[in-house]
Fold this sequence. Notes:
By secondary structure, this protein is an all-beta fold.
Amino acid sequence: xxxxxxxxxxxxxxxxxxxxxxxxxxxxxxxxxxxxxxxxxxxxxxxxxxxxxxxxxxxxxxxxxxxxxxxxxxxxxxxxxxxxxxxxxxxxxxxxxxxxxxxxxxxxxxxxxxxxxxxxxxxxxxxxxxxxxxxxx
Length: 137
């Protein structure tokens, strides 16, 4: 017969890397893939695939505040667990730049990543403004 094993904790085994907007990008892609593993009360990685339909969901938040930010997490951020782990390969940020964390939730268990930074694309002034003078009026 089948049964459901509830995870005791989640572990981020590969932390997200920093991201930067490119010249014509609307998404700042994270520089590394991230991996999350579900573990039981004995700290063993859960094996098998979650057939019960539960998904591990990633969200973005401002680092240190725990609040949702004015930035969107793009890419596939909802998966079922397979062999006790899930690798996120295409995550990116759209919106404001700053320092963020990712938060994963699975069956009531939550873990946050370490902080990562999203930097804006550098603006370059190609034509400097000219001088101005008040005229008689």
